[in-house]
Design brief:
The chain is an alpha/beta fold and about 270 residues long. The chain has nine helices and 13 strands. Helix 2 runs parallel beside helix 3 (about 70-85), helix 3 (about 70-85) runs parallel beside helix 4 (about 120-135) and helix 5 packs across helix 7 (about 210-220). The chain is globular, with a radius of gyration of 18 Å. The N and C termini lie far apart (about 35 Å). Bound molecules: NADP nicotinamide-adenine-dinucleotide phosphate. NADP nicotinamide-adenine-dinucleotide phosphate binds near residues 10, 42, 64, 67 and 73.
Length: about 270
Amino acid sequence: MRALVVGASGHLGGEVARLAAAAGADVAGTSTTGASGWSRLDITDREAVRALVSRVRPAVVVNAAYRADSWAICADGAAHVALAATEAGARLVHVSSDALHGGRPEPYGDDAVPTPIYPYGVAKAAAETAVAAIDPAAVLVRTSLIVGDERSKQVRFALDLVTGRTRGALFSDMVRCPIDATDLAAALLELAASGYRGLINVAGPQATSRAELGRLVAKRYGLDPAAVPVCTIAESDLTAGAAEVRLDSTRATGLLKTPLRGVAEVLGVA
Ligand SMILES: NC(=O)c1ccc[n+]([C@@H]2O[C@H](COP(=O)([O-])OP(=O)(O)OC[C@H]3O[C@@H](n4cnc5c(N)ncnc54)[C@H](OP(=O)(O)O)[C@@H]3O)[C@@H](O)[C@H]2O)c1
């Protein structure tokens, strides 16, 4: 089976590529620079995406490419990948985000309509609409903060704050459902091999504030959890995003063999 991982140089894409290769797939991947032997690709270039996909002829395409500040990459780029995958007859797994939810205390179901409140979430919502319209058989996976080792930007940020390498604070009232990169990558590959169509939440079972996540990371690395700088969203002058976004992943846990572990277990501090 040939798999194309768009964004293979990234954290999640790298895990998808590694697990797919370990399972015996013939893996092609992309990065924007051609680093690590991956093919160079900019998904904002529609014809370049088409040319690469028709050359690689993958059975499966996983799109894990993004840049949070870029509509062209998150929205237009996702549509270009969906178009090329459909033309090639490939199975498409598109990675979406909990960022498209506006926040509320109750968990969001798999098919909850997007209510984005900041540009990244708007772009991820637009991507879903485009991808589902182009390829109704695609799987659209909504996920949350991706954690694991220091390749995780969430883990790195927490470590940088605790060690004073960067200034800022983690919100005590911003709640998400962090997921391990390897668990998520395995789930994406399982979904690729399934007949599942449409939206599905794939996130961790342990809702955690960003501040608590920072404390767990500190603990994991033998640092003082009390050294994590903390504030509320209201105390910050940043454009923060939604407060409470919990993804209900009951459907995914019922469907998949891959266990979706809670963040304390993932970080080894359960
Ligand atoms: N990180 C999180 O906590 C989080 C939370 C929820 C959802 N997600 C979703 O999960 C997915 C993967 O996130 P991640 O943290 O693993 O990402 P990441 O580590 O930041 O990797 C992003 C990937 O996208 C590639 N990329 C950037 N611009 C591109 C362009 N113009 N054309 C083609 N590729 C481009 C990067 O290539 P280069 O290495 O060459 O720059 C890299 O391979 C994304 O869809 C994101 O929306 C992430």
